[in-house]
Amino acid sequence: MTGPTVRIAQLSDLHFGRHLPAVAEALLDSLREVAPTMIAICGDLTQRARAGEFRAARDFLDRLPAPALVVPGNHDLPGWRLWSRFTRPWRRWRRHIGTDPHGAVTCTADGVLAVGVNTARQWGLHPDWSRGRINTRQLAGILAEFDRAGPTDLRVVIAHHPFLLTPAGLRRGLVGRSGLALRRLHRRADLLLGGHIHLAYSDVVDGMVVAQSGTAISDRLKGEPNSYNVIDIVGDELTVETRHFDGTAFTATTRHRYRRQDRHDWQVG
Ligand SMILES: [Fe+2]
Ligand SMILES: [Fe+2]
Q1: What tens digit of pLDDT does each residue of 32-42 get?
Q2: How far, in Å, CA of 110 to CA of 6, rounded?
Q3: Residues of the chain whose pLDDT is less than 50?
């Protein structure tokens, strides 16, 4: 089957507070040139959820050249300010970013229906509270939104925590309940976008393309330069192109191709 042409710019882990201003300007230049249909921002907008960091993030969002769908990451919670973390964890997010962190946020553009979910959690039954989770209510919300999609619309899930890890990121952990999520989303979703690991990669999992983007503009590098992804869907082909920062500008470095076998069923190639 053939669908419309869609271009998604995928950014994550901006970490305002640890951001590099020159890289942020280069990213905005690159996004204007790329002219995406929509921009997916996969969480960790701030470093410590400080008000000044959220204000800087807000200023950046206001300069984006396309509609953006933004979800929180674990760094957008008050870290060890435990009183705030438990009593009003998303107060600054709501004030500065303006979306409901608990609701499914959607972005409909020509040929795409994207749903964002908040996988960051205030606490967990493990010592690493940076880990995230997706729950059955969120999965039901995603599927309800997808029921509203047009027959050829690309269906996209935008989260912070990953649905796929490479060996370099194994200790960080998949999003909690990822197995259940993959089963529910199988043949219902086309593309799962995430961040958190600060590494860029993509592959097919259970017939869905999973794409991870690196840290777009922060100095919290994990062995590779700042990057973001440009995802093109033209007919039955989907391309994930990673653009790395080369010291001056974001330039295309790697490109992975995927092909639709059937509705919401993709393979490498
Ligand atoms: Fe991050
Ligand atoms: Fe994170």
Answers
A1: 999 999 999 99
A2: 7
A3: none
